[in-house]
Amino acid sequence: MIMTKPAQTLFHQNKNTSHSNPAFTLVELLGVITIIGILAGLTLGGAGAIRRHGATSQAKSEVAALQAACERYFADNNAYPANSSVDPSSSSSAAPTGYTGAGQTLFTNLIGSATLSGTSTSKRYFEPKPLMVYTNGSPNYFIDPWGYAYGYNSDGTNAPLIWSTAGQTTTNGMNKWITSWPKL
Prior knowledge:
Blueprint: H1 7-11, H2 26-77, H3 100-111, E1 133-134, E2 141-142, E3 151-153, E4 161-164, E5 178-179
Antiparallel strand pairs: 1-2, 3-4, 4-5
């Protein structure tokens, strides 16, 4: 007589076999999470640099546009908008918040109104984008991509100096300013 195993045991697998379950180990998961973290850090760091470069390029083009608007103003009036309250070489003018008065003078002369939405009393020499204008007060003034007023200085006869502090709040960053005058 031949002894056979019952039918149940023929199809029943032993739980102690060497088959592995299709799952990730903790070490593999930690490795993948680490790689994702490194790649995210590199990507976000690069995005910040791109954002700063974009803001700098925008400020350069806005300074050039304001300079061109001042030249158009000069062609019609034989004088530049005069403002002697701010001198970029003085140490007291390093804080970008100190330029609002000069910015208001520039705005009022180039727009022909104290506010962007106001009716112009004279010719408009500049059409700014709405994000370039600080409108929470009257008169309004032009702001750079960092949210500070553009600096402006002119005695009326000499070409004006227009600058952005590029977000710098101390004189230590003066070499990073974006200006209308040539770099020396």
